[in-house]
Amino acid sequence: MKVLLTGAAGQLGQALQRLRPNAIDLIACDRQQLDLSDESELRTAIQQIRPDWVINTGAYTTVDRAESETDLASAINANAVQVLAEELAKTGGNLLHISTDFVFAGDRNQPYPPEAKRQPLSVYGATKAAGEEAIAQLLPTRSLIVRTAWVYGLGGRNFVTTMLRLMAERDRLTVVWDQIGTPTWTDSLAAALWQAIAQNLTGIHHCTDAGVASWYDFAVAIQDLALERGLLQQAIPIVAIPSIAYPTPATRPAYSVLDCADFNRAIGRDPLHWRHALAQMLTQLATN
Ligand SMILES: NC(=O)c1ccc[n+]([C@@H]2O[C@H](COP(=O)([O-])OP(=O)(O)OC[C@H]3O[C@@H](n4cnc5c(N)ncnc54)[C@H](OP(=O)(O)O)[C@@H]3O)[C@@H](O)[C@H]2O)c1
């Protein structure tokens, strides 16, 4: 099976390459090799490679900067996705597209099921929602949209690597406690995505690790587990603050836990609790 991967240098792209099943012929393209903002390059690539699947992990992911770079975010997160769906509709290929909890408003207090209404609060969320809508229109029966959340992994820019750097540099940290979600390790997500492709899953699904946390809880766990592994030398105080005390250009959902039950059932997955996944990732980091 021939699979074309976009955004290969990203944290999820790297994990998908590390965990590639042997039977997959993977053509992994980073931004230099395949620029999602170049529509004609994208159309030519699909027509020439004619992949059985495209896994689209490439995205404009700088959530705050998207508020002022709307056109670029839209070109990558919405228009490129539309182009992929149009070309795959012609070639007969399938599309696995990665989307986000930020398509939701975050005003519930129960996990979001896949069919919940999209109501993005930010430009990033709106562009990702537009990408999803294009797929639903253009490639409804040969597409799989997997929304995930709070992703971190080795070799990526993410909350875990940022916290480890700040915990080593500073003598105190403040972290918000009133945004709730589920931290998700790239490697558990990538393994689930390969499984979903093997089973030809279609539709809209949710995939995160198990459990819930605030960013504050996540930060405390990072410090505890990093200290145990010698990744940090000393503990610093971590102070919980409300989001209102840490204003950002983009508004984030207050509660964006995703209900992954259907997806887990469909692929026979028993997800790791996020703290156990974090422990595994930090062990890898400490022994690398
Ligand atoms: N990170 C999260 O917390 C999170 C949460 C929910 C959903 N997601 C979704 O999960 C997917 C993977 O995210 P990630 O965490 O792996 O993000 P990431 O590490 O930021 O990777 C995204 C990749 O996309 C590439 N890219 C940006 N513009 C491009 C372009 N014009 N053409 C081709 N590639 C381009 C980036 O290239 P450069 O390295 O050159 O910038 C980067 O390698 C994305 O669809 C994202 O929306 C992420």
From TrEMBL:
Enzyme class: oxidoreductase
NADP among keywords: yes
Matching SUPFAM superfamilies: NAD(P)-binding Rossmann-fold domains (SSF51735)
Pfam family, one: RmlD_sub_bind
EC number(s) on file: 1.1.1.133
UniProt GO MF annotations: dTDP-4-dehydrorhamnose reductase activity
This protein's pathway: Carbohydrate biosynthesis; dTDP-L-rhamnose biosynthesis
Keywords on record: NADP, Oxidoreductase
InterPro entries xref list: dTDP_dehydrorham_reduct (IPR005913), NAD(P)-bd_dom_sf (IPR036291), RmlD-like-bd (IPR029903)
Residues in RmlD-like substrate binding domain copies: 1-285
Domain of life of the source: Bacteria
UniProt similarity note: Belongs to the dTDP-4-dehydrorhamnose reductase family.
NCBIfam families: rmlD (TIGR01214)
Role noted for this protein: Catalyzes the reduction of dTDP-6-deoxy-L-lyxo-4-hexulose to yield dTDP-L-rhamnose.
Protein name (record): dTDP-4-dehydrorhamnose reductase
Organism listed in the record: Synechococcus elongatus PCC 11802
